[in-house]
Amino acid sequence: MPIKIPADLPARTALESENIFVMTEDRAARQDIRPLEIAIVNLMPTKIATETQLLRLLGNTPLQINVTLLRTAAHVSKNTPALHLERFYKTFAEMRHCAFDGMIVTGAPVEHLPFEDVDYWHELLEIMTYAQEHVHSTLYICWAAQAALYHFYGIPKYPLPAKISGVFDHDVLHPGCHLFRGFDDTFTAPHSRHTGVRTEDVLNEPRLRVLAESREAGLTLAESRDHSQVFMTGHLEYDRGTLDAEFRRDQGKGLNPIPPRHYYPAENPDLAPRMNWRAHAHLFYSNWLNYYVYQETPFSLAAITGNRQQSSGVAIKE
């Protein structure tokens, strides 16, 4: 089944060239089906690239999905054309009356700042609090995962001695978790961050459990015990060239970055990077959509708010 997007969204051309089944709004309106409603809160400066990455993964499932792109009103984007934002994005104020089956909140390059100093922090607090009552399951990525852990559980982020950048091996700690259906015992995923969350802090919070960890990159995946929140510190959505582009950008700024680890053949940045996380990326997003959203969300969106208010203390489902 397809993912429904506007006919003129730039990501459409890229996705169709990869045989990802997309459907325009006009065609979807003629189908008698209740699609999943998924919101993407895009905090990345390169919004068009991030849209394409996430839509590629959401579109490769058997489910029909309506996607709503959200942005913060408090921040003025310098890297995405204003016309693109006006055409394809809504602000939280415009959508706060709606409910969603699932929500994805992306990372953002603001790790060097205390959370409270980010210009859209108060708006993001509203969004995260709203998601707890109006979204069945929310996936927080990288900085957004750190922000949500801090907001809901008081778990701090810590500056790292050096930026973690590269593609790292991860151990699956709970193979019975539905998010890992079809996974191997270990999987690879990209990381790109200057701060981290300590595993022991998450383990000390009884409402959470740690799902995957890397010996080199640390905590990678955690969740709330009722599946309403999933926290991913890495970037399974990244394209083959995303880490390379970040590395070249930092080189151009004279920052003398260390090349991403386990990414280039023979650790040589003059060679084309390898991509060895694509299969697990598709599988993870498919599992999240199927087991944490589709299989559990009520048929009526209006029922989500009531269900979320009653969901605290739900036992882990294996």
Helix and strand layout, with pairings?
Layout: E1 3-4, H1 11-17, E2 22-23, H2 25-29, E3 36-41, H3 47-58, E4 65-71, H4 82-88, E5 89-91, H5 92-95, E6 100-105, H6 121-134, E7 135-141, H7 143-153, E8 158-172, E9 186-196, H8 199-203, E10 208-214, E11 218-224, E12 229-232, H9 242-252, H10 278-294, H11 304-309
Helix pairs in contact: 1-3
The CATH topology name reads: Rossmann fold
Mean pLDDT score:
89
The CATH architecture would be: 3-Layer(aba) Sandwich
* CATH level-four homologous superfamily name: Class I glutamine amidotransferase (GATase) domain
Low-confidence stretches: 28-32, 312-318
SS-derived structural category: alpha/beta
Question: Class in CATH?
Answer: Alpha Beta
Distance between the termini: 27 Å
What is the tally of beta strands? 12
Task: Estimate percent helicity.
Answer: 25-40%
Radius of gyration: 19 Å
Shape: globular
Total number of helical segments?
11
Task: Bin the strand percentage.
Answer: 15-25%
Element order: H for helix, E for strand: EHEHEHEHEHEHEHEEHEEEHHH
Number of domains: 1
Largest sheet: 12 strands, mixed
Relevant terms:
318 residues, alpha/beta, Rossmann fold, twelve-stranded mixed sheet, 11 helices, 31% helix, 24% strand, globular, disordered C terminus
